[in-house]
Amino acid sequence: MPKPMAKTGTGSSAQDPERVKAERDRSIKLAFCRADLLFELDRDLTIVYGAGATDLLFGVSPDDLRVGRVHHFEVLSRFRDTERAKSTFQIITLAENLNLIAEFDRAVFDKSAALLDEFAKKGPMPAVAIDLSGLSLSNDAFVDGLLKSLKAKPSLKGRLLFELTESAGIGQLEKTNNIIQGFRHMGYGFALDDFGAGAASFDYLNALEVDVVKFDGPVIRRACASKRGGDLLTTMAKMCASSGVETVAEMVEDKNIANQVFYCGIDFGQGWYFGKPSPDPFAFAADFADETDDTE
Q1: Three-class SS state of 226
Q2: What span, in angstroms and rounded, lies between the C-alpha atoms of 32 and 26?
Q3: Cross-strand pairs, 43
Q4: Per-domain boundaries in the chain
Q5: Contact criterion met (CB below 8 Å) for 161 and 190
Q6: How far apart are alpha carbons 244 and 239 in whole angstroms?
Q7: What are the pLDDT tens digits along the chain (296 aa)?
């Protein structure tokens, strides 16, 4: 029997010392990135509430638009060390690339839940929404842990919402939808964030049963820039309404945009027009809806 031939050529990393060294260096850098990001999550993560790019939501039905009542808040993550963390978006992207986004999302949930307990001492306030990556929902350990925490803390029901982001794509749509329905059956609303940001948005809307769809900022800008854009937004808003899904316009920066999205049939507006971010949601207490508003 002939002897097996030895592998030759420079294509194999085992025979290429330079490539081996490069891969080793890359692994070391990634390990340091993981350790640094975990340190950042543990030490420097702060929670901000308000109406920045993805923050505070107000009702845009005629009465609510005129009086500016807060519908609910969205949590924003901010890092204190701005020299090392140029933007939260970069940190989230890094977390997704390093497969650490589940840890990031869990850190946000834990800090948000703790803050909600503190805020409850001040009095009633609107619900709070936190983002969840599609990658996190594909992580069985993350989902099991989050469900366990919610069951152990039923006081969060009605005070906490979730938003599914499209930043990393959403895989296994049937499985993801089943997970979402599990949260919804427990009383936790779910929103589909960044709608229109990617080519798969309509696939997500068709496959995922959610309570709210949030239209991405560029979609809103196009709707306000031309009649065709406005007509398209109106059509999509009607499509959502016919399915019992509420709609949110992101990046509402002025009254003109607020009026246009309202006339397109959008339910809620979000953006700096309603107020800038604040670490204290009670900074907006004057705009909280009266408790009697929901009992009529």
Answers
A1: coil
A2: 10
A3: none
A4: 19-212
A5: yes
A6: 9
A7: 544 444 444 444 456 777 776 776 665 555 555 555 555 555 455 555 543 322 323 233 322 444 567 888 888 877 665 555 557 777 777 778 888 889 889 988 998 998 899 999 999 988 889 999 999 999 999 999 999 999 999 999 999 999 998 766 687 899 999 999 999 999 999 999 988 877 678 888 889 999 999 999 999 999 999 999 999 999 999 999 999 999 989 888 888 998 899 899 998 888 888 877 778 888 888 878 765 344 34
Q: In a 3-state reduction of DSSP, which class is residue 188?
A: coil
In 3D space, the residue among 154, 148, 140 whose CA is nearest the CA of residue 187 turns out to be 154
As a whole number of angstroms, the distance between CA 290 and CA 95 comes to 39
- 173, with CB counted inside 10 A (0-12, 13-18, 19+), is middle
SS3 content of the chain, % helix, strand, coil (to 5): 50, 15, 30
Angle between helices 88-97 and 101-120 (to 10 degrees): 130
CATH class of 19-212: alpha beta
Sign of CA dihedral 211, 45, 122, 61: negative
Quickly count: other Cβ atoms within 10 Å of residue 227's Cβ: 8
* Pairing, β 268-270 against β 160-165: unpaired
pLDDT at res. 202: 84
CB burial of 115-140 (b: ≥16 within 10 Å; e: otherwise) equals: bbeebeeeeebbbbbbbbbbbbbbbe
Q: In the structure encoding, which two tokens stand for residue 290, read together?
A: 């009266």
Residue 161: strand pairing partners = 129
